[in-house]
Design goal:
With 261 residues, this protein is α+β, with helices and mostly antiparallel strands. The protein has 3 domains: 31 residues, no CATH class; 84 residues, Pseudouridine synthase (2-Layer Sandwich); 131 residues, Pseudouridine synthase. 25% of the residues lie in helices and 34% in strands. It contains 8 helices and 16 strands. Strands 3, 4, 5, 6, 9, 12, 13, 14, 15 and 16 form a 10-stranded mixed β-sheet that branches. Strands 1-2 form a two-stranded antiparallel sheet. The protein is globular. The two termini are 47 Å apart. The N terminus is likely disordered.
């Protein structure tokens, strides 16, 4: 089969295209992109964006959204929304409550409120278990929380972390969040907590606020998201598989599912 294509010199350029090639090309053009949800246990040291980029490459799909990012040092549940139909529903999934295992390092505060920042305050004060218990009671139920400067939250159209990198600190309005905080273990300087929280909660801010209330300073040293909405970490695919030389594309594709909405 031949196709005539007009050129700029008004001559006709004849391109030979086999029938089989045309059928294959047509099939490629109408094959739907993968659609659904993929649950990933994000490995430590990887950014949420690198996870999305790896999946775009593996699945060959451009439209991928999420139901909440995780910092590079954090691990756990990331809900990836694959395909155009699912990314349209991102707001619905972003509103879901989340659950974390958080380790708070007492005695040191940092500018980012986590282990990746620069130490800004140190104290030899060692809080007692009873003091810890009393302070944690202040972080139960509905509270007002101020977002950290090192965050993607926008103020007047600018992301806070962009201003923070310029050395600027601006006033941030507190937001209403709901918390349920349980003490799992305390061996100074480490305080291990289970935190159930509403949308928009910053666990880093919680750690910093605990340190301020105790008077010793604190930062978030470890974080694992164990649940996002109904999705648990036990149901997640190991995210490290996405970064090996030859990822198992078939296994990753099989892990896709379409929820009943």
């Amino acid at each position: 089969m031949s196709i005539c294509v007009s050129s700029s010199s008004s001559k006709k350029l004849v391109v030979s295209v086999s029938r089989e090639a045309m059928i294959n090309r047509l099939a490629d053009s109408i094959t739907p992109d993968p659609q659904g949800i993929l649950l990933i246990d994000k490995p430590i040291g990887k950014t949420s964006f690198s996870l999305v980029a790896a999946l775009r490459r593996i699945l060959g799909v451009r439209k991928i959204g999420h139901a909440g990012t995780l910092d590079p040092f954090a691990t756990g549940v990331m809900v990836l929304l694959i395909g155009r139909n699912m990314t349209k529903l991102s707001d619905r999934f972003l509103c879901e409550d989340k659950e974390y295992l958080a380790q708070v390092h007492l005695g040191e505060a940092t500018d980012t409120y986590d282990c990746e920042g620069t130490i800004t305050f140190q104290s030899p004060l060692v809080p007692t278990p009873s003091e810890i218990k009393a302070i944690i009671q202040e972080f139960q139920g509905e509270i007002q929380q101020i977002p950290p400067m090192h965050s993607a939250k926008k103020v007047n159209g600018k992301k806070l972390y962009e201003l923070a990198r310029q050395g600027k600190v601006i006033e941030r309005q507190p937001a209403k969040v709901t918390l349920q905080v349980e003490i799992l273990d305390y061996h100074y300087p480490y305080l291990n907590l289970r935190v159930k929280c509403s949308k928009g909660t910053y666990i880093r801010s919680l750690a910093d606020d605990i340190g301020k209330k105790l008077g010793c300073g604190a930062h978030l040293s470890n974080l694992k998201r164990t649940r996002s909405g109904p999705f648990k970490v036990e149901d997640c695919l190991d995210g490290s598989q996405l970064f090996i030389a030859s990822p198992d594309t078939q296994e990753i594709s099989k892990a896709l599912f379409y929820p009943a909405l």
